[in-house]
Fold this sequence. Notes:
Blueprint: H1 2-24, H2 78-94, H3 142-151, E1 192-201, E2 212-224, E3 229-243, E4 252-255, E5 258-269, E6 274-284, E7 298-313, E8 316-329, E9 336-348, E10 354-367, E11 393-404, E12 409-421, E13 428-437
Antiparallel strand pairs: 1-2, 1-13, 2-3, 3-4, 3-5, 5-6, 6-7, 7-8, 8-9, 9-10, 10-11, 11-12, 12-13
Amino acid sequence: MKLPTIGTLCLAGWLGAGSASADDLGWRPVIASSSPQKPLPQNPLARPTAVALGRPIPVSLGRPQPLLNPSNESPTSIQDALIDQASARTVLLDAPSIVRAQVPEPPPLPPPTTGDPILGPDPYAAPPIGIGAEPPPPSPGFWSQTKEMIMGTGPVPGCGGRGRFQSDHAFDGFISPVTNPFLFEDPRALTELRPLVLVQSIPSKNWIFQGGNAEFYGIQGRLAFTERWSAVVNKLGFVSVNPGSGSPFSSRTGFAEINLGPKYTFFRNERSGTIAAAGATFEIAAGNSKVFQETGQLSIVPYISFGQNFWRTQYGSVNFMTTGGYNFATDNKRSEDLFLSLHLDYDVANWHRLYPLIEMNWIHYTQSGTVEPFHFEGGDLVNFGSTGVAGSNQIDLAFGARYKFSEAIQLGTAFEFPIGGNKGINDFRWTIDMIFRY
């Protein structure tokens, strides 16, 4: 009887203890959420977690974390471990995450500069020579520069690749006129030497010279400083006058007056083939008086020259050229006149070799001179200073051709005869020239 009674009491005590433990789980406090918008569900098995107090909570970044145990005690049962794991999930979801990003690379340093730090780099400083780069070529010496200046070798700065004193070759399809050579001027800026020969017969009806002939042997020169500015020597040579047998004058030969002046090409359009120039020729009466080349002192002849290429076909093209101007005398001894010259040529098959041409020259005398009692004048060859020429005209027509062996060597010739007005001392003229052009 004694043993059953003791066993019964022990069994009853153990059952009472288990009931008390189950009652304790019902009143434990609920874990408060750190997010006011998302309250935590009340878990009767959850234990209160520790407060962070502003300390950062580590992020696992995918690594497994140990179960939280605020009391730093090892879980006593599987139930306690589950409670700690649920508390950790709650805290990790509600707590703000701290992510550490990679520090960006610093920006590269600016390249070194030269010059003042405030005013900036020197724009005229030479660039540094890199490693392995070739040094700049040495500058030409004194004699090399002198040779380039005289011979015109090498391009000229600011001239679009032209050599020094080189002709304007953008209009090589043109040719220079042949007749009226002392007044009819090509509008291009040219560098050339042009030997020239004129042979003309004097009308037999001319009561002063009564036939015979007059000749000119000389040279013309042109020098192009740029493709627009050039200087021209129109007349430099000798004049020969050989009258007929009944003339009071004998045959004479002497130095001719000098004609020269500047020329400016003020318009040039390579695409349309248009070019125009203006200039002035100074007729200096420094020749021999025996051949009437010392009349008065000086005449100034301003002029305008124009050239146009047109009618371009596969068989060739046409070039037109004209020069017009006025001859002003600086004294009352020399005669004054207005002149106009026209030129038309055809570039056969666009070869730039053979150019048949036709030219016409017109001179209208506006004022007589006071030297010789003549009723005629000498055209572009002689200024007699005749007293009876005012109001008269002289009109000549010429046919000829120019042939280019190359752009540097050209030959021209034309035959000219009067078609109206006063013949003067020209009953027929043959002009021949040779151009050596740079």
